[in-house]
Amino acid sequence: MMRNRALSCLLTMLLIATADSTQNTVVRLEMAHRDTLSPTAFRRIEDIIGEDKKRHTMISQKRKTKGGFKMPLGSGVDYGAAQYFTEVSVGTPAKKFRVVVDTGSELTWVNCRFHGKGKEKVENRSVFRAEESSSFRKVGCLTQTCKVDLMNLFSLSSCPTPSTPCSYDYRYADGSTAQGVFARETFTVNLTNGRKRRLRNLIGCSNSFTGESFRGADGVLGLAFSDYSFTSRAVDLFGGRFSYCLVDHLSHKNVSNYLIFGSSPTSTKTTAAARTAPLNLDLIPPFYAIDIVGISLGDKMLDIPAQVWDGTAGGGTILDSGTSLTFLADAAYTIVVEALERSLVGFKRVKPEGVPIEYCFSSTSGFDESKLPQLTFHFKGGARFEPHRRSYLVDTAPGVKCLGFVSAGTPATNVVGNIMQQNYLWQFDTLASTLSFAPSTCV
User: Among 18, 27, 160, 432, which is least packed, fewest CB within 10 Å?
Assistant: First the structure.
């Protein structure tokens, strides 16, 4: 969940290994999408586009050890959310929490009770009782960490006694909020060699949180590229790389893949050779900026002004797992939608109630998506990303499809959202500053 410039820095993740392991393994976290628990998966489009727009506003304002581990990763459709979930094990003894996977934020936190403060389990959510964990250590409000290191992470200035913990009041761009205290705690991860490993981290113990962003979740796993995110320390310890494969966003919770930290090859099967493109980690921090230079439809390159892709002039593009739809600056949005519209002549335009997407049409009368020209994102250096057609023709109601693009304004950061990324394997190499990707079933 991203936020404005004043909210740009989040929680420091100080991952310190507490067990020796130099095996050539990777850590994998299973990951799932969270789109709707309601009777229909389509009603969530109205909610997610509002969340996406607020998130995009904030984006536009913000400018070693070998081996690894894995986490389960899957769609949140069964939990009523439009993002992807994984599970993390926190504390001693370890307790599992279902968290949103967010490459656009730095804060990692869980639903937590500390000194009796915080909500008990509600809405099928788990609660972490800090005082029952032998490894929980609060960060004091008078410490250097609180007063200096976490100053831009919304640590609060109030400090009535030296023993008072360092508190935060974090507000996301879509209006969601999380309040709590910073603490050092242990994460237990599963290595791919079958062993477990404990990592010491600085996380957020949130005793209060509100907002649709956390629908069905116990917290957030912040994966932005920053000294304060889970990613930076995890890749430092496990080889500089992480990867994920996003299953179809309407998949149920029994369908999943993995979020993997580590350099060992993944077992995920791809249907074509991987392509590699530059990953610009310094251009729009803390986001993962990619060097898109154009978009084509079929064999025709669309006439989009070059400044749309210029990250030094207010444009540029990021890849974000926490935004569902894909945002394009006005100059690109208009051209892309008009080009796709010409390919949809003959299909009735419709306006589904509560769906704030500009172009929707009836797909009940002989629509064949395979006849729609292939949309392609062109990277600097020649790599091409060809999303699946269902990734830019989004099902929003029975018999209704919409173009999965949102106008971002001018100037604006372009955002490739998680629906556009689905059924691709993505590998981020933070040492080489490269992004590799290949189509995959993710199962």
Answer: 160
Cis, peptide link before residue 411, omega less than 30° from 0 = yes
* 160-164, 214-218, 292-296: range with highest mean pLDDT: 292-296
Model confidence at 3: pLDDT above 60: no
Peptide bond into 286 cis (omega under 30): yes
In DSSP notation, 254-272 reads: T-EEEEEEESSPP---BSS
List beta partners, residue 170: 178
30 pLDDT tier (thresholds 50, 70, 90): confident
Identify the active-site residue in 102, 218, 291, 429.
102
Closest CA relative to residue 247, chosen from 401, 49, 35, 2:
35
> How far from the centroid of its chain's Cα atoms is residue 309's Cα?
21
Q: State both tokens at 438.
A: 């290949």
- The b-or-e profile of 193-223 (16+ CB within 10 A means b, else e) is eeeebbbbbbbbbbbebeebbbbbbbbbbbb
Active site residue 227: no
Report the b/e string of 321-343 with b at 16+ CB within 10 A.
Answer: bbbbbbbbbebbbebbbebbeee
pTM for the full predicted model: 0.85
Query: How does pLDDT run across 123-137, given as a tens digit for each residue?
Result: 668 999 999 999 999
Told to judge if 368 belongs to the known catalytic residues of this protein, a careful annotator would answer no
Q: Give yes or no for a cis peptide into 356 (omega within 30° of 0).
A: no
Q: Which of 78, 248, 320, 429 is catalytic?
A: 320
Q: Judge whether 320 and 417 are in contact, CB under 8 Å.
A: yes
Classify strands 317-319 and 393-397 as parallel, antiparallel or unpaired.
unpaired
Alpha-carbon distances, residue 237 vs 23, 93, 204, 348, 362 (angstroms)? 12, 23, 21, 54, 50
Cβ pair 427, 274 in contact under 8 A: yes
DSSP 65-94: -S-EEEEEEEEEETTT-SEEEEEEEETTTT
* Angle 295-304-430 from CA coordinates, rounded to 5°: 50
Identify the three-state secondary structure at position 147: helix
Domains, in order of start, for the chain? 5-262 (2.40.70.10), 275-439 (2.40.70.10)
Cβ atoms 350, 362 nearer than 8 A: yes
Higher per-residue pLDDT: 231 or 386: 386
Three-class DSSP category at 369: helix
**In this structure, what token pair is assigned to residue 370?**
């395979």
Distance separating alpha carbons of residues 352 and 332, to the nearest angstrom: 24
